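Hi R.,

Here are the chain sequences for the assembly we discussed:
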Amino acid sequence: ETGVTQTPRHLVMGMTNKKSLKCEQHLGHNAMYWYKQSAKKPLELMFVYNFKEQTENNSVPSRFSPECPNSSHLFLHLHTLQPEDSALYLCASSQEGGWDEKLFFGSGTQLSVL
Amino acid sequence: RKEVEQDPGPFNVPEGATVAFNCTYSNSASQSFFWYRQDCRKEPKLLMSVYSSGNEDGRFTAQLNRASQYISLLIRDSKLSDSATYLCVVTLQRGGYNKLIFGAGTRLAVHP
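And here is the predicted structure of the full complex:
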């Protein structure tokens, strides 16, 4: 148990569906992240929130919409996705600020878009 | 050039072997360095930080060479349970915040 909980663990959706991924951290951290991991590729940073404010949007298509209602919760709303969006989506949190920034990851959501 | 480069492997080694991975990074302004471990179908977990003076944790030793812009991870007396993908991570400061850049990982397979 890393203190970062993600749901659902697996998700299959059609291209016209709307779904949401949820992340909750119990570590008292101030920064939360969404990463995408495709096969044989590095983790790609999607969004960063620091103290509930979005501080990074890494040129992510608008069909991915993040929401951070408070420092402990992070959502990723999905709408009209494409098959190439199938990947492992990882949420992470960290105690923002220092150079020695360590990430704590959730178990991820394995997403398949049909 | 990729910001963080790793040999994807796989490195196939017998139990008890010593194995070393290198990772190179392109931005000389990188401030912090880490190794993460990721098991198959699981999330990455921090293995260790990497300091200029070197860092040892049991069978694992990490080194940083700023002049040549690479970090290394040495695993001694490999165990079957060491089989995983090892991710090299560097930190840059951008826009007032720290940004972690991940390598694609090096896969290690330890066999009996």
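Chain B has a mean pLDDT of 92. The interface with chain A takes residues 4, 8, 31-32, 34, 36, 41-46, 49, 87, 91, 93, 95-105 of chain B (CB under 8 Å).

Let me know if anything looks off.

Best,
T.
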